[in-house]
C-alpha cells in the first residue's frame, strides 16, 4: 500500500511539474543526449521545427527509470515520447503503444533494427532512433593486398584472415591490429561479432563445436596480428602511425584517424561468418507510453524523428548515426563521412545479425565481460586447449546467468528464467 501511495505521489508530482507545457508541447523523456552541449543541440537544431514544440528532458539513469515506472504503474502521465537504449526500453516492453501505423513512407529503416523494436511480438514497440557501432578500417595501402575476388564491403572471416596473411608476408611484418589492450573493447568483438557469426548465439552456444571453430579462426588471424596489439586500447593511434594497416574497433575509437588523415583510410563492415554478419549495435529507440496524454501527437513526433533531415540533425547533435538510409551531407567531419556509410552498409546488409549488449546483468556485467576476456587470454595468448577452456569458462558463465537470473537476449532465443548455457 505504501509503495502504491509513493508511486501515486511521484506521478502526481511529475504530472504537476509539466502540466503547464503538456497541452502545448510533447514531453520527450530521454536518457540520451544528456551532456549539456548535446541537450542544447537537440532542443535548438533537432526539435525546434516540430509543430507545437517539444519539451526535451534528458535524464540520468535513476530519475529516467523512476518517472517511467510511476507513470506506467498509475496509467496516467505527462511523458509523450521516451528515448532510451534497447535494454532500457525492453524493461517496459508491455507499456509501449504499437507504432506499426506510424507513416514511414519514403524512409528506409534497417530491417534488423525494426525487428528488434518488436521485442518478439507482432507490435512495433519502438522505432530505432540512432546507433553507434563497431566497424573495420584499413589504410588504403592495404587494399592492393586484398585476396582475389574479395569485396571490402562484403568480407568473410576467411577473407580477413587471408588479407592479414598477405599483408604480413608481402610487407614483411604483421599489419592487422586488434584492441587487446587493458582498456580495449576486445570483449565486445567476441560477444557481438566473432562468436555470433559462427554460432548464432552470444551465451547459449558458448561451448559449442561452432564456438570452437570460431576461436580456431581467431587463433589463425592472431598469427598475422601486430604483437603490440596487447597494448592497443584505441586503434586510431596505430593506424595513424602506420604500425597497423587493418583494424577493428568502435567508431569513436577510430574517428581521429579519419579526421587527421581523411585520404589515407577506408571504413567497411565487419566480416560475416556461417550464421551471418554479426555486429553489436549501441541502439537507442523511441517509444510512446500507453499513459501518454496525446498518443496521436506523440506518434507525430516519432514520425518527425525518423525523417532523413532529423536523423542527420541528430547525428550532428549526438555523434550517433542514423538507423535509416538518410543521405549524409558533404560538410560532415571526415570521420562521420567515412564511418557512417560503413555502419549503414553493415546494419542493413541481407545477412545482418544484431547481437545485443548484455541485458539484465546489473552490476555483474563486468564479470560477464571477463568470461570472454579470460577465454581470449587463455586460448589465444596462452595457447591453451580450446575445448578445455570453453568447458571451464562455460561453467563460470552458467553460474553467472543463474546468479543474475538474466533471461536470454538476442541473438539467443528467449528463455523462461536464466539464459541457459548448453
What's the quick description here?
44% of the residues lie in helices and 12% in strands.
Provide structural commentary:
The chain has 422 residues and is an alpha/beta fold. It folds into 2 domains: 2-131 and 282-327, D-Maltodextrin-Binding Protein, domain 2 (3-Layer(aba) Sandwich); 134-280 and 340-422, 3-Layer(aba) Sandwich (D-Maltodextrin-Binding Protein, domain 2), CATH 3.40.190. 44% of the residues lie in helices and 12% in strands. The protein is built from 15 helices and 11 strands. The strands form 3 sheets. The chain has a 5-stranded mixed β-sheet with strand order 2-1-3-10-4, sandwiched between helices. Helix 7 (186-199) packs across helix 8. 50% of the residues are buried. Residues 1-22 have low confidence and may be disordered. Keywords: Cell membrane, Lipoprotein, Membrane, Palmitate, Periplasm, Signal. One of its GO terms (cellular component) is periplasmic space. Its main location: periplasm.
The order of strands across the largest sheet is 2-1-3-10-4
Number of helices: 15
**Which runs of at least 5 residues are low in confidence (pLDDT < 50)?**
1-22
Question: Span from first to last CA?
Answer: 42 Å
Second-tier CATH architecture of the largest domain: 3-Layer(aba) Sandwich
- Shape call: globular
What share of the residues lie within helices? 40-55%
Instruction: Give the biggest beta sheet.
Output: 5 strands, mixed
Total beta strands:
11
Q: What integer is the average pLDDT?
A: 93
Q: Output the CATH topology of the largest domain.
A: D-Maltodextrin-Binding Protein, domain 2
> What is the domain tally?
2
Amino acid at each position: 500500500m505504501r509503495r502504491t501511495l509513493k508511486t501515486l505521489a511521484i506521478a502526481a508530482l511529475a504530472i504537476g511539474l509539466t502540466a503547464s507545457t503538456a497541452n502545448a508541447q510533447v514531453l520527450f523523456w530521454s536518457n540520451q543526449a544528456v551532456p549539456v552541449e548535446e541537450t542544447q543541440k537537440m532542443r535548438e537544431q533537432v526539435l525546434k521545427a516540430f509543430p507545437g514544440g517539444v519539451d526535451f528532458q534528458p535524464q540520468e539513469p535513476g530519475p529516467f527509470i523512476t518517472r517511467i515506472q510511476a507513470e506506467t504503474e498509475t496509467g496516467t502521465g505527462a511523458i509523450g515520447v521516451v528515448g532510451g537504449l534497447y535494454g532500457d526500453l525492453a524493461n517496459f516492453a508491455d507499456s509501449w503503444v504499437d507504432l506499426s501505423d506510424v507513416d514511414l513512407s519514403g524512409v528506409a529503416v534497417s530491417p534488423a533494427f525494426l525487428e528488434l523494436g518488436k521485442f518478439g511480438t507482432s507490435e512495433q514497440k519502438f522505432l530505432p532512433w540512432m546507433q553507434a557501432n563497431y566497424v573495420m578500417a584499413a589504410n588504403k595501402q592495404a587494399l592492393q593486398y586484398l585476396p582475389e575476388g574479395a569485396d571490402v564491403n562484403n568480407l568473410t572471416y576467411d577473407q580477413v584472415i587471408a588479407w592479414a596473411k598477405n599483408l604480413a608476408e608481402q610487407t614483411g611484418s604483421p599489419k592487422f591490429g586488434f584492441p587487446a589492450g587493458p582498456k580495449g573493447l576486445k570483449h565486445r568483438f567476441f560477444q557481438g561479432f566473432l562468436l555470433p557469426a559462427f554460432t548464432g548465439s552470444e551465451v547459449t552456444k558458448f561451448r559449442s563445436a561452432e564456438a570452437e571453430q570460431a576461436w580456431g579462426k581467431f587463433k589463425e588471424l592472431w598469427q598475422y596480428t601486430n604483437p603490440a596489439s596487447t597494448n592497443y586500447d584505441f586503434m586510431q593511434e596505430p593506424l595513424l602511425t602506420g604500425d597497423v594497416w587493418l583494424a577493428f574497433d568502435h567508431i569513436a575509437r577510430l574517428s581521429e584517424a579519419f579526421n587527421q588523415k581523411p585520404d589515407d583510410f577506408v571504413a567497411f563492415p565487419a566480416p560475416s561468418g556461417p550464421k551471418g554478419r554479426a555486429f553489436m549495435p549501441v541502439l537507442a529507440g523511441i517509444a510512446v507510453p500507453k499513459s501518454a496524454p496525446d498518443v496521436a501527437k506523440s506518434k507525430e513526433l516519432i514520425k518527425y524523428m525518423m525523417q532523413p533531415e532529423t536523423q542527420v540533425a541528430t547525428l550532428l547533435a549526438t555523434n550517433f548515426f542514423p538507423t535509416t538510409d538518410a543521405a549524409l551531407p558533404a560538410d560532415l567531419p571526415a570521420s562521420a563521412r567515412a564511418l557512417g556509410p560503413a555502419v549503414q552498409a553493415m546494419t542493413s546488409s541481407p545477412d545482418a545479425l544484431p547481437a545485443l549488449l548484455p541485458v539484465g546483468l546489473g552490476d555483474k556485467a563486468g564479470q560477464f565481460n571477463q568470461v570472454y576476456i579470460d577465454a581470449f587470454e587463455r586460448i589465444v595468448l596462452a595457447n591453451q586447449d580450446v575445448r578445455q577452456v570453453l568447458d571451464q569458462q562455460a561453467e563460470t558463465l552458467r553460474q553467472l546467468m543463474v546468479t543474475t537470473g538474466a533471461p536470454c537476449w538476442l541473438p539467443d532465443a528467449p528463455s523462461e528464467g536464466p539464459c541457459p548455457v548448453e
